[in-house]
Structure formats: structure tokens, C-alpha cells
Design goal:
The protein is an alpha/beta fold and 338 residues long. The chain folds into 2 domains: 191 residues, 3-Layer(aba) Sandwich (D-Maltodextrin-Binding Protein, domain 2), CATH 3.40.190.170; 139 residues, Bacterial extracellular solute-binding protein, family 7 (D-Maltodextrin-Binding Protein, domain 2). It contains 13 helices and 10 strands. Strands 1, 2, 3, 4, 5, 6, 7, 8, 9 and 10 form a 10-stranded mixed sheet that branches. A hairpin with a 2-residue loop joins strand 1 and strand 2. Helix 2 runs antiparallel to helix 11. The two termini are 19 Å apart. The chain binds 3-deoxy-alpha-D-manno-oct-2-ulopyranosonic acid (KDO).
Length: 338
């Protein structure tokens, strides 16, 4: 089986992508003559990306902008943030590649299982000229600037069942498992590619769904499993590392264009610095939390990673997503890896 997926191998059918509805929020105003930067995310205020943005980005732009974060999807529903920015109803979000793939199918390349290798690889890919046409398209067609890449972490399979009931060593072991995944085509595809039965659901509903058993499990990096307290309602984590996940710091192009070149430089640096701070904090948490979760009684173990990687990659071969990937980009991403 292929170790690194190639575009040539993966070409197939054209995809159909659905775009949701806009958020319809009030227009941004000025606070004390400062530019208001409302940021909406499904993440909590104690998530490492949230902490880095509030602790690094906000203070860095405070001379001319008022950074106003909104957590737990309290301002805009998960998955609608990009449309809200495009409509002028929001200034910032931390957007996933899967959300961007709703508008621009080629972004699914960054949402494909086992493509990004680690946090440093994500940064090299984001800063490489290969990203320029992707960034330009989002700017020109959606009015959103992708400023920097934030590290969310390695996603793993986290289930309600004890390991004595489900021992997830290979994709076959996930057959019939209702695995909550975020609600977009690219996410759902990844869930199927893992061998599970993906169930779309908003992030903020996961805890209750795990508690009541309306889903069998969910996939997220360990820091999220802890931050959202999923460990209270689950029994095991199979360390599948199926996606080294990211979010882009998304910024309104209309607001950007109103800034002076000096202010733009401050915003850009603030975003890069916040991303770096968040990345280091998240990497540290990923390492530390295995012990914490074991202490909470969870079984944490490594499955047959080759079986998962081979199976996931085979699903993308010939898929609707792979056809949207521009020629040569997957090879460039692979070449930037280890
Ligand atoms: C999730 O819904 O599982 C996910 O991890 C998807 C990410 O793209 C990101 O939106 C994240 O949720 C939220 O920020 C909450 O951590």
C-alpha cells in the first residue's frame, strides 16, 4: 500500500459540496474609536488556541483594535463563521480546512487523513508558495484572509465502550460504531474512511451525546478530550492519529483593507505569534495528557497504524475530493514532510 498518498493515485469523481446559511448578525461598530474584531469559535475560553489569541493577539493589536472573542459557538454556529465574515457580520474566526472545502473543494487536500505529518509540517506547508493560490482564492472570492495556521493536534478515536467491548486495532474494529464527526462532507468522508459510521453533530453537543449514548464516540486531539471533559463520559482512546489537525486564523479582508500598512504588519505578526504560542502549548499538552487520562481510568493505546493509514488513503484514491486537488500539490506537501 502507498505510504504517502499521491494525487495521480487519488484522482476520481467530481464532488458535490453544500454551503450552509448566513448568520445575520449586526454590523460591526467602533468601540472607543478602535476597530472591533469579533472572533467566533466553538472552542472554549480555556482551549489553547483561545488562550493564545486572547493572551497574545488581543494585547498586540490593542493600540488600534478591540479584540472580542466569543466562545462555545455563542455568536455564530460552528461551520457558519466564514459566511459570517464574508457577509460583514464577523471579523475573525479560526477556520478548518474542512469548512473552507465547503466553498473551495481543493482545500480538502489539507483535511485528508495522514497527509500532514506534524505541527512543523503544517507550518512549512502554510508558508510555502504552494499555498498562495489557495489563499488568493479565499481572499478574492470569499473576502477572507488566512493569516496564520494554528495547531489543533493529532485526532484520535475516543469511545464510550471499555476496551473489553471494543478493541480498536484496525478499521474493521470500527464497523458499526457511531462516531461523531463535525457536520461537513470532508469530515464525514474521513469518518467513513476510518471504517466508522460517522454522525454529524456540532462540537457543543458532543458531551451530552456521549453521556446519553446517542453516539458511541468522537474524534479529537487529547487536549480537546480534556478541555471539553469528554474523558468523564468515555472509556478509551485508540491513538489513531488519523488527522494532524489545524485551523487557519481567518480575518475579514474588508477590515484588513481599512488598516494602514503598519497596522496590517502588527495584525500579521500578532497572528503568527499567537499561532506559535498556541502550537507550543498544545504540543506540550498532547504529551502530558496521556498520563492524566490514564489516571482518570481511560485505556489509551496505539492501534495498528499502518492498517489505519493504508485503509484511509485507499478511500481517498478515486474519491470525489481527490479530483479537486490541483496537479502536483500533494507531491509538494509530501516533499515538505520528513
Ligand atoms: C470538532 O468539532 O470536533 C472540532 O475539533 C473541529 C475543529 O475544526 C474546530 O472547529 C474545533 O472543533 C473547535 O474549535 C472546538 O475545539
Amino acid at each position: 500500500m502507498i505510504d504517502k498518498l499521491t494525487r495521480r493515485a487519488a484522482l476520481g469523481l467530481a464532488g458535490a459540496f453544500v454551503v450552509g446559511v448566513g448568520a445575520g448578525l449586526p454590523l460591526p461598530g467602533l468601540a472607543q474609536d478602535k476597530i472591533v474584531l469579533r472572533m467566533s469559535t466553538p472552542a472554549s475560553d480555556s482551549d489553547q488556541r483561545s488562550l493564545a489569541l486572547a493572551g497574545v493577539f488581543g494585547p498586540a493589536v490593542a493600540g488600534f483594535a478591540d479584540y472580542q472573542p466569543h466562545y462555545n459557538a455563542s455568536l455564530v454556529a460552528q461551520g457558519s463563521e466564514l459566511e459570517a465574515i464574508a457577509a460583514g457580520d464577523l471579523e475573525m474566526s479560526i477556520a478548518s480546512a474542512q469548512e473552507l472545502a465547503n466553498f473551495f473543494p481543493e482545500f480538502s487536500i489539507f483535511a485528508t487523513g495522514y497527509v500532514h505529518q506534524d505541527a512543523a509540517h503544517q507550518v512549512r506547508v502554510f508558508n510555502d508558495p504552494l499555498m498562495d493560490p489557495f489563499k488568493k482564492k479565499v481572499e478574492d472570492e470569499l473576502g477572507v484572509k488566512l493569516l496564520s495556521v494554528m495547531y489543533l493536534g493529532r485526532r484520535h478515536v475516543n469511545l464510550r465502550f471499555p476496551r473489553s467491548e471494543r478493541n480498536v486495532m484496525t478499521p474493521a474494529d470500527l464497523a458499526g460504531v457511531n462516531l461523531r464527526m463535525p457536520g461537513s462532507d470532508a469530515w464525514q468522508f474521513l469518518g467513513k474512511a476510518l471504517g466508522a459510521n460517522p454522525t454529524p453533530m456540532a462540537f457543543t453537543e458532543i458531551y451530552t451525546a456521549l453521556q446519553t449514548g446517542s453516539v458511541d464516540g468522537q474524534d479529537n486531539p487529547l487536549p480537546t478530550v480534556v478541555d471539553a471533559k469528554f474523558y468523564e463520559v468515555t472509556k478509551q482512546v485508540s491513538l489513531t492519529s488519523h488527522l494532524v489537525d489545524l485551523n487557519y486564523i481567518a480575518f475579514s479582508k474588508a477590515v484588513w483593507d481599512k488598516l494602514t500598512p503598519e497596522q496590517q504588519a502588527v495584525v500579521q505578526k500578532a497572528a503568527d505569534d499567537a499561532a506559535e504560542t498556541g502550537r507550543q502549548a498544545q504540543l506540550k499538552k498532547e504529551e502530558e495528557l496521556v498520563t492524566f487520562l490514564k489516571d482518570q481510568g481511560l485505556d489509551i493505546y496505539e492501534p495498528d497504524l499502518k492498517a489505519f493509514r493504508d485503509h484511509v488513503q485507499a478511500q481517498y484514491v478515486g474519491s470525489e475530493f481527490a479530483k479537486s486537488w490541483p496537479e502536483g500539490v500533494l507531491e509538494k506537501i509530501n516533499a515538505l514532510g520528513n
